[in-house]
Design goal:
Layout: E1 7-10, H1 16-24, E2 34-37, E3 58-65, H2 74-91, E4 97-100, E5 104-107, E6 110-122, E7 125-136, H3 158-177, H4 181-190, E8 199-203, E9 209-217, E10 223-227, E11 232-235, E12 240-242
Parallel strand pairs: 1-2
Antiparallel strand pairs: 2-3, 3-7, 4-5, 5-6, 6-7, 8-9, 8-12, 9-10, 10-11
């Protein structure tokens, strides 16, 4: 079963995604297999950013997922994964969780974690996905960030958090298997960070600013905003900056 697949924990790795990539291609590796570590030498986040964390201060892990998806369906995996992590945080008594596009986790306007998904393709079919997850457990004095210990005295162990997360994923795998994109979209947009709020944004290409509000994230991952004159603008990753 997915939630009972093997789990390997290490004191130190360059990154859990890198290690997982070496075993994910093996036919005997089960979907749901997890790799965790106390410290990453070369942790990575979205947009080629580094994920830096003090030893034993965070959940640092990768879950291998083997499920057949098409290229045009792949952003639903991103939405689904962010939803499962947000629901896991909710089970650990973290309040008011939101997903900042594309799939960072925020609590009360501050980042508590992020997700980096890497996919391997074969003949236009998804071979496997590496769902890399970083969650701040304890206070690291990070600017504009928060952690579980700021919101509850019950800080989970890595293994306990992983168990909660894999059980959560197992319960909702059917959303991917049955391609229930409308339901995934509905859940994702309910907790999408700044959705419907008028905010200031910056266009990366020309550094110009505009006031707008997020209205949705499309199937291909494009972020759609409505401007003051009610026109719609769409942006992919690295094309817009939240201010």
């Amino acid at each position: 079963m997915f939630e009972q697949s093997p789990h390997s924990h290490f004191e130190q790795l360059d990154s859990t995604n890198n290690y997982a990539s070496t075993i994910a291609k093996l036919p005997e590796t089960q979907s749901g297999t997890a790799i965790t570590t106390d410290f990453q030498l070369k942790g990575r986040g979205q947009r080629d950013n580094q994920w830096l964390a003090e030893p034993r201060s965070s959940f640092l892990g990768t879950i291998i997922l083997k499920i057949p998806l098409k290229p045009e369906e792949i952003f639903y995996l991103s939405k689904w994964a962010a939803l499962q992590v947000s629901k896991t945080l909710d089970q650990h008594n973290i309040p008011r969780i939101s997903i900042k596009w594309p799939n960072d986790l925020y609590v009360e306007g501050k980042k508590i974690g992020g997700i980096l998904i890497e996919n391997s393709w074969r003949d236009q079919q998804l071979n496997y996905s590496l769902i890399g997850i970083g969650i701040n457990f304890s206070n690291q004095n990070l600017e504009n960030a928060t952690c579980i210990s700021n919101h509850t005295i019950e800080i989970p162990t890595v293994s306990f958090f992983l168990n909660t997360l894999r059980n959560q994923m197992a319960r909702n795998l059917f959303l991917l298997e049955e391609k229930q994109w409308i339901e995934i979209d509905s859940q994702y947009h309910q907790i999408l960070f700044q959705k419907g709020e008028i905010k200031n944004y910056q266009i990366a290409k020309d550094q110009s600013y505009f006031l707008g509000k997020i209205i949705r994230v499309e199937a291909d991952g494009k972020l759609m905003l409505e401007t003051e004159d009610q026109s719609c603008l769409g942006f992919y990753m690295k094309e817009i900056i939240f201010k």
